[in-house]
Specification:
By secondary structure, the protein is an alpha/beta fold. The protein has helices spanning 16-25, 63-72, 91-105, 119-124, 132-148, 187-194, 211-227, 244-252, 267-286, and strands spanning 2-6, 30-33, 78-84, 109-113, 152-155, 160-164, 178-181, 197-199, 236-237, 257-261. Strands 8-7-4-3-2-1-10-9 form an eight-stranded parallel beta sheet. The radius of gyration is 18 Å and the shape is globular.
Length: 287
Protein backbone atom coordinates (compact mmCIF):
# COMPACT_ATOMS: atom_id res chain seq x y z
CA UNK A 1 0.00 0.00 0.00
CA UNK A 2 1.20 3.49 -0.88
CA UNK A 3 0.08 6.77 0.67
CA UNK A 4 -0.17 10.28 -0.67
CA UNK A 5 -1.62 13.72 -0.20
CA UNK A 6 -3.86 16.02 -2.18
CA UNK A 7 -4.27 19.75 -1.63
CA UNK A 8 -5.34 22.65 -3.78
CA UNK A 9 -2.52 25.01 -4.66
CA UNK A 10 -4.03 28.47 -4.14
CA UNK A 11 -3.04 32.12 -4.09
CA UNK A 12 -3.22 32.15 -0.28
CA UNK A 13 -1.75 28.76 0.69
CA UNK A 14 1.77 27.35 0.75
CA UNK A 15 2.98 26.92 -2.80
CA UNK A 16 3.02 23.61 -4.69
CA UNK A 17 6.83 23.45 -4.76
CA UNK A 18 7.13 23.90 -1.00
CA UNK A 19 4.32 21.40 -0.43
CA UNK A 20 5.85 18.83 -2.78
CA UNK A 21 9.22 19.02 -1.01
CA UNK A 22 7.54 18.57 2.35
CA UNK A 23 5.54 15.59 1.09
CA UNK A 24 8.64 13.90 -0.31
CA UNK A 25 10.76 14.63 2.78
CA UNK A 26 8.15 13.00 5.03
CA UNK A 27 8.18 9.75 3.12
CA UNK A 28 4.87 9.95 1.28
CA UNK A 29 4.57 8.33 -2.12
CA UNK A 30 2.48 10.83 -4.09
CA UNK A 31 1.08 14.33 -4.38
CA UNK A 32 -2.10 15.02 -6.34
CA UNK A 33 -3.25 18.53 -7.23
CA UNK A 34 -6.94 19.15 -8.01
CA UNK A 35 -8.34 20.90 -11.07
CA UNK A 36 -10.94 23.61 -11.61
CA UNK A 37 -10.57 26.20 -14.36
CA UNK A 38 -13.10 28.44 -12.56
CA UNK A 39 -16.23 28.23 -10.43
CA UNK A 40 -19.44 29.87 -11.71
CA UNK A 41 -20.74 32.45 -9.26
CA UNK A 42 -24.30 31.18 -9.76
CA UNK A 43 -23.59 28.16 -7.52
CA UNK A 44 -26.58 26.24 -8.87
CA UNK A 45 -24.74 22.92 -8.73
CA UNK A 46 -24.56 21.60 -5.15
CA UNK A 47 -21.11 20.85 -3.75
CA UNK A 48 -20.10 17.21 -4.25
CA UNK A 49 -19.93 16.32 -0.55
CA UNK A 50 -22.44 18.84 0.76
CA UNK A 51 -22.18 22.13 2.63
CA UNK A 52 -20.63 25.36 1.44
CA UNK A 53 -17.98 25.30 -1.27
CA UNK A 54 -14.54 25.96 0.33
CA UNK A 55 -12.47 28.90 -0.89
CA UNK A 56 -9.74 26.61 -2.21
CA UNK A 57 -12.07 25.49 -5.02
CA UNK A 58 -12.38 29.10 -6.14
CA UNK A 59 -8.87 30.45 -5.66
CA UNK A 60 -6.79 27.56 -6.96
CA UNK A 61 -3.80 27.90 -9.25
CA UNK A 62 -3.75 26.08 -12.56
CA UNK A 63 -3.19 22.39 -11.88
CA UNK A 64 -0.53 21.86 -14.56
CA UNK A 65 1.46 24.90 -13.44
CA UNK A 66 1.37 23.58 -9.89
CA UNK A 67 2.52 20.12 -10.96
CA UNK A 68 5.38 21.60 -12.98
CA UNK A 69 6.57 23.48 -9.90
CA UNK A 70 6.32 20.28 -7.84
CA UNK A 71 8.20 18.24 -10.46
CA UNK A 72 11.07 20.71 -10.49
CA UNK A 73 11.89 20.25 -6.79
CA UNK A 74 11.25 16.52 -6.25
CA UNK A 75 12.87 13.31 -7.44
CA UNK A 76 10.84 10.40 -6.09
CA UNK A 77 7.15 11.01 -5.47
CA UNK A 78 4.45 10.36 -8.04
CA UNK A 79 2.67 13.51 -9.21
CA UNK A 80 -0.99 13.28 -10.13
CA UNK A 81 -3.82 15.26 -11.64
CA UNK A 82 -6.51 14.98 -9.04
CA UNK A 83 -8.61 14.92 -11.12
CA UNK A 84 -8.17 16.55 -14.53
CA UNK A 85 -11.47 17.77 -15.94
CA UNK A 86 -10.65 16.79 -19.51
CA UNK A 87 -14.11 17.83 -20.67
CA UNK A 88 -13.00 21.42 -20.03
CA UNK A 89 -9.62 21.14 -21.77
CA UNK A 90 -8.52 20.85 -25.39
CA UNK A 91 -7.16 17.29 -25.80
CA UNK A 92 -4.25 18.22 -28.09
CA UNK A 93 -2.98 20.85 -25.66
CA UNK A 94 -3.66 18.64 -22.63
CA UNK A 95 -1.80 15.73 -24.21
CA UNK A 96 1.26 17.95 -24.73
CA UNK A 97 1.07 19.35 -21.18
CA UNK A 98 0.94 15.87 -19.65
CA UNK A 99 3.67 14.48 -21.91
CA UNK A 100 5.85 17.50 -21.10
CA UNK A 101 5.31 16.97 -17.37
CA UNK A 102 6.15 13.29 -17.70
CA UNK A 103 9.30 14.21 -19.61
CA UNK A 104 10.42 16.83 -17.10
CA UNK A 105 9.63 14.67 -14.06
CA UNK A 106 11.41 11.58 -15.37
CA UNK A 107 8.22 9.59 -15.82
CA UNK A 108 6.38 10.30 -12.54
CA UNK A 109 2.96 11.49 -13.74
CA UNK A 110 -0.36 9.80 -12.96
CA UNK A 111 -3.35 11.10 -14.91
CA UNK A 112 -6.50 11.17 -12.81
CA UNK A 113 -9.50 12.16 -14.92
CA UNK A 114 -13.15 12.77 -14.15
CA UNK A 115 -16.41 14.05 -15.55
CA UNK A 116 -16.89 16.68 -12.85
CA UNK A 117 -19.90 17.64 -10.74
CA UNK A 118 -20.37 21.32 -11.63
CA UNK A 119 -22.77 21.55 -14.56
CA UNK A 120 -22.41 25.31 -15.09
CA UNK A 121 -18.62 25.09 -15.04
CA UNK A 122 -18.45 22.60 -17.89
CA UNK A 123 -21.21 24.32 -19.86
CA UNK A 124 -19.09 27.49 -19.80
CA UNK A 125 -16.57 25.45 -21.78
CA UNK A 126 -19.21 24.49 -24.34
CA UNK A 127 -19.78 20.92 -23.14
CA UNK A 128 -23.29 19.49 -23.08
CA UNK A 129 -23.91 18.06 -19.60
CA UNK A 130 -25.73 15.02 -20.97
CA UNK A 131 -22.88 14.16 -23.36
CA UNK A 132 -20.00 14.81 -20.97
CA UNK A 133 -18.92 11.21 -20.55
CA UNK A 134 -18.70 10.58 -24.28
CA UNK A 135 -16.67 13.79 -24.59
CA UNK A 136 -14.40 12.56 -21.78
CA UNK A 137 -13.89 9.17 -23.44
CA UNK A 138 -13.06 10.65 -26.84
CA UNK A 139 -10.61 13.14 -25.38
CA UNK A 140 -8.81 10.46 -23.38
CA UNK A 141 -8.64 8.16 -26.39
CA UNK A 142 -7.35 11.03 -28.52
CA UNK A 143 -4.65 11.85 -25.98
CA UNK A 144 -3.54 8.23 -25.87
CA UNK A 145 -3.25 8.29 -29.66
CA UNK A 146 -1.07 11.41 -29.47
CA UNK A 147 1.13 9.88 -26.76
CA UNK A 148 1.69 6.59 -28.56
CA UNK A 149 1.73 7.44 -32.29
CA UNK A 150 4.39 9.41 -34.14
CA UNK A 151 1.72 10.57 -36.57
CA UNK A 152 -1.55 10.55 -34.68
CA UNK A 153 -5.13 10.69 -35.94
CA UNK A 154 -8.49 10.47 -34.20
CA UNK A 155 -11.97 10.46 -35.68
CA UNK A 156 -14.75 10.87 -33.12
CA UNK A 157 -17.96 12.80 -32.77
CA UNK A 158 -16.40 15.51 -30.59
CA UNK A 159 -12.67 15.13 -31.34
CA UNK A 160 -11.30 14.98 -34.88
CA UNK A 161 -7.80 15.46 -36.24
CA UNK A 162 -5.69 13.85 -38.95
CA UNK A 163 -1.97 13.11 -39.01
CA UNK A 164 -0.51 15.38 -36.38
CA UNK A 165 2.97 15.50 -34.87
CA UNK A 166 3.30 16.18 -31.18
CA UNK A 167 6.39 15.79 -29.00
CA UNK A 168 7.69 15.09 -26.45
CA UNK A 169 6.31 11.61 -26.04
CA UNK A 170 5.85 10.50 -22.42
CA UNK A 171 8.70 8.76 -20.65
CA UNK A 172 6.29 6.12 -19.36
CA UNK A 173 5.34 3.52 -21.92
CA UNK A 174 2.96 3.21 -23.53
CA UNK A 175 1.83 6.38 -21.70
CA UNK A 176 1.22 7.72 -18.18
CA UNK A 177 -1.46 5.63 -16.43
CA UNK A 178 -4.97 7.05 -16.68
CA UNK A 179 -7.04 6.64 -13.51
CA UNK A 180 -10.77 7.11 -14.12
CA UNK A 181 -12.45 8.93 -11.26
CA UNK A 182 -15.97 8.45 -9.96
CA UNK A 183 -18.25 5.86 -8.42
CA UNK A 184 -21.43 6.20 -10.46
CA UNK A 185 -23.29 3.29 -12.02
CA UNK A 186 -21.22 3.12 -15.22
CA UNK A 187 -17.84 4.13 -13.78
CA UNK A 188 -16.40 0.63 -13.97
CA UNK A 189 -17.46 0.38 -17.61
CA UNK A 190 -15.33 3.46 -18.26
CA UNK A 191 -12.38 2.03 -16.34
CA UNK A 192 -12.57 -1.15 -18.39
CA UNK A 193 -12.93 0.66 -21.72
CA UNK A 194 -10.22 3.32 -21.57
CA UNK A 195 -8.73 3.46 -18.08
CA UNK A 196 -5.59 2.01 -16.53
CA UNK A 197 -6.83 2.38 -12.94
CA UNK A 198 -9.68 3.70 -10.81
CA UNK A 199 -10.04 6.63 -8.39
CA UNK A 200 -13.13 6.28 -6.18
CA UNK A 201 -14.00 9.16 -3.84
CA UNK A 202 -14.58 7.98 -0.27
CA UNK A 203 -15.62 11.33 1.21
CA UNK A 204 -19.38 11.51 1.71
CA UNK A 205 -21.75 14.21 2.99
CA UNK A 206 -22.05 14.28 6.79
CA UNK A 207 -24.14 11.41 8.10
CA UNK A 208 -23.74 9.27 4.97
CA UNK A 209 -21.42 6.38 4.19
CA UNK A 210 -21.12 4.48 0.92
CA UNK A 211 -18.02 2.53 1.90
CA UNK A 212 -19.74 -0.88 1.64
CA UNK A 213 -21.03 0.00 -1.83
CA UNK A 214 -17.56 1.00 -2.99
CA UNK A 215 -16.03 -2.16 -1.56
CA UNK A 216 -18.52 -4.16 -3.62
CA UNK A 217 -17.50 -2.16 -6.70
CA UNK A 218 -13.85 -3.00 -6.01
CA UNK A 219 -14.71 -6.69 -5.91
CA UNK A 220 -16.67 -6.31 -9.13
CA UNK A 221 -13.75 -4.58 -10.85
CA UNK A 222 -11.39 -7.36 -9.77
CA UNK A 223 -13.79 -9.98 -11.14
CA UNK A 224 -14.18 -8.16 -14.44
CA UNK A 225 -10.41 -7.79 -14.83
CA UNK A 226 -9.92 -11.51 -14.25
CA UNK A 227 -12.63 -12.37 -16.77
CA UNK A 228 -10.96 -10.06 -19.30
CA UNK A 229 -7.64 -11.84 -18.75
CA UNK A 230 -5.81 -8.78 -17.50
CA UNK A 231 -3.99 -7.92 -14.23
CA UNK A 232 -5.93 -6.23 -11.44
CA UNK A 233 -6.52 -2.53 -11.92
CA UNK A 234 -4.61 -0.30 -9.48
CA UNK A 235 -7.00 1.63 -7.25
CA UNK A 236 -6.23 5.00 -5.66
CA UNK A 237 -8.75 6.28 -3.12
CA UNK A 238 -9.44 9.97 -2.57
CA UNK A 239 -11.04 11.31 0.58
CA UNK A 240 -9.55 8.37 2.49
CA UNK A 241 -10.69 8.23 6.13
CA UNK A 242 -7.94 8.37 8.71
CA UNK A 243 -9.10 5.10 10.19
CA UNK A 244 -6.75 2.07 10.34
CA UNK A 245 -9.55 -0.50 10.14
CA UNK A 246 -11.08 1.14 7.06
CA UNK A 247 -7.67 1.30 5.40
CA UNK A 248 -7.08 -2.38 6.19
CA UNK A 249 -10.37 -3.24 4.49
CA UNK A 250 -9.42 -1.11 1.50
CA UNK A 251 -6.07 -2.85 1.20
CA UNK A 252 -7.75 -6.25 1.38
CA UNK A 253 -10.16 -5.12 -1.35
CA UNK A 254 -7.28 -4.35 -3.71
CA UNK A 255 -6.63 -0.67 -3.09
CA UNK A 256 -3.02 0.10 -3.95
CA UNK A 257 -2.78 3.73 -2.81
CA UNK A 258 -4.65 5.91 -0.33
CA UNK A 259 -4.71 9.68 -0.80
CA UNK A 260 -5.48 11.94 2.17
CA UNK A 261 -6.86 15.42 1.71
CA UNK A 262 -5.42 18.55 3.28
CA UNK A 263 -7.20 21.88 3.42
CA UNK A 264 -5.30 24.61 1.58
CA UNK A 265 -3.62 26.89 4.08
CA UNK A 266 -0.34 28.55 4.99
CA UNK A 267 2.76 26.47 5.64
CA UNK A 268 2.50 27.28 9.35
CA UNK A 269 -0.82 25.44 9.46
CA UNK A 270 -0.29 22.76 6.81
CA UNK A 271 3.08 21.41 7.93
CA UNK A 272 1.93 20.37 11.45
CA UNK A 273 -1.03 18.55 9.86
CA UNK A 274 1.33 16.90 7.41
CA UNK A 275 3.57 15.82 10.29
CA UNK A 276 0.60 14.23 12.09
CA UNK A 277 -0.45 12.49 8.90
CA UNK A 278 3.10 11.20 8.37
CA UNK A 279 3.10 9.68 11.87
CA UNK A 280 -0.26 8.06 11.13
CA UNK A 281 1.13 6.55 7.91
CA UNK A 282 4.22 5.28 9.79
CA UNK A 283 1.88 3.46 12.18
CA UNK A 284 -0.04 1.96 9.27
CA UNK A 285 3.16 0.72 7.64
CA UNK A 286 4.33 -0.81 10.90
CA UNK A 287 1.21 -2.97 11.24
Amino acid sequence: MEYGVTMFATDYSMGPAELAMAVEERGFDALFIPDHTHIPASRKSPFRIGGQLPDDYIRNLDMFVGLAAAAAVTKRIRLGTGVCLVIERDPIITAKEIASLDHLSGGRIDVGIGGGWNREEMENHGTNWKRRFKVMRERVEAMKAIWTQDEASYDGEFVKFERIWSWPKPVQKPHPPVFVGGDAERTLDRVMRYGDGWIPMLADPPGESRLEERLKMMADLARRATEAGRPPYPITTFGTPRDPETIRRLRDAGVTRCIFGLKADSADNVLPRLDRLARFVEELRAQ
